[in-house]
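Dear support,

I submitted the protein below through the web form. The confirmation email said the job was done, but the results page showed an empty box. After a refresh the structure appeared. I'm attaching both so you can tell me whether what I see now is the final result or a partial one.
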Amino acid sequence: MIRKRIPAKDDRILVRLTEKELLPYTRMTVPEADVNLSEMKKRFKLGETFVADEGASAAGFVSVQVSDDSLFVDMLAVDSRFQGRGLGTSLMEQAEKYGRKMKCRTSRLYVDSVNEKAISFYLAKGYTVKSYVPQLRLHLMEKEL
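What the results page shows now:
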């Protein structure tokens, strides 16, 4: 089930998911990169966060922001124990549905260039690589909504 984030229930779990599933890629470029609950709450407040429930707790999430007519996918993470079950796809579908509701024409995201699994995932969802940020080793990917 995909639902909106419930801060008191989800935030600590989402921080752990970020540390486990996203931070290792970021640290390949920025070794000192870190996340904490306070920082994550600030990021979540900038947009909307959807959570994939699997049993009693969050198994994944997508956090998005809207700017003008663009949806920005800030973070997508699915617990490795639940990958391959369609949760990432369901989360992205919910994010894009939200973007269309907010009158967005495009969806954009950055992905670590070393995260080949994520790049393949986004390509399969219709995203294309638009540019590369060499200083951060990130690809900007985009899709028309």
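Response: this is the final, complete result; the empty box was a page-load delay. The chain has four helices and seven strands.
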